[in-house]
Amino acid sequence: MSGGSTAAFATPSAAFVRNPHNVLVLIRKANDKDWPAIWPFLRKVVAAGETYTLPRDIGEKQARELWLLEPPGRTVVAAKPDGTIAGTAKMNPNHQGPAAHLATASFIVDPAHSGYGIGRALGEHVLDWARSEGYRAMQFNAVVETNTRAVALWRSLGFEVLGTVPEGFLHPTHGYVGLHIMHRHL
Amino acid sequence: MSGGSTAAFATPSAAFVRNPHNVLVLIRKANDKDWPAIWPFLRKVVAAGETYTLPRDIGEKQARELWLLEPPGRTVVAAKPDGTIAGTAKMNPNHQGPAAHLATASFIVDPAHSGYGIGRALGEHVLDWARSEGYRAMQFNAVVETNTRAVALWRSLGFEVLGTVPEGFLHPTHGYVGLHIMHRHL
Description:
With 186 residues, chain A is an alpha+beta fold. Chain A has helices at residues 35-48, 60-67, 118-132, 148-156, and strands spanning 14-18, 24-29, 74-79, 85-93, 102-109, 137-144, 160-171, 175-185.
């Protein structure tokens, strides 16, 4: 379950991991300068309306405020060896107070870099982060059931479906479909 | 399932409902002047740490920002016939975009007015509001499983448990207990 962080590359804010193709992916904390690289594919994925519970016509300001988190939240980018930012994830507490031991996270991979293992590298990184921060579990609140690649990826990373909100998501071609709530202990 | 709104009393922002004891309860939109009445019992309930996923030592400013919602959210108070504010509820979209048809809500009843039907009156009001706003379902994200009165109330109002986050809540006497995700169609 380790993200496979290579000690020689690891720093407190960045770590290279090997994706399933055995190619290095750099996962590092996002900064303001990354936003121009994130926004085009974030907008594309949200506008498609197939996987995200965000307004399809979301504005750049709202998207940026929502995506680039301050502590206790955190946002990272995944960069390919040539520096191209191919995906991003944000992670944060899912609840507060007596339920603050539950983390949550969201992921966006640039469709142009699909199939490269970026989502898996980000998922493993987020789990490592949550463990190191002392969270006891990770919960995803809204995984669209027709997003079968994501569902399969999270299952392969140890998540189970806790429950499914019936007709919880209006898909542009499938109509109302379920929204999975997924969970795993850490 | 109607909140039993009495036309003679109803206004766009306030409605009397009869609680199970056949006593009128006024449900109306909360305003800034209600906060001094809400804060003492909100603080007491949150500090007890048995039912709420908020910091037990929550500050007044944070609580106020979190509780008094602007549109598309809404916050109401429940007043007894003598004007005493005995409970409050807030309601808002649970997700955005393609899942914006799901509403959620939170409730706090002053323990000093427990057993008077305030929670039920607020629950029925919230369901009426969500229907009138065009939501298709109501979802509660974190109902502590040991809060058996609340679980029974929501079941009696048509909610079902979609799933339970195992060990999702650290209860001061029961230790880690489950957090129910509850749902009903509208």
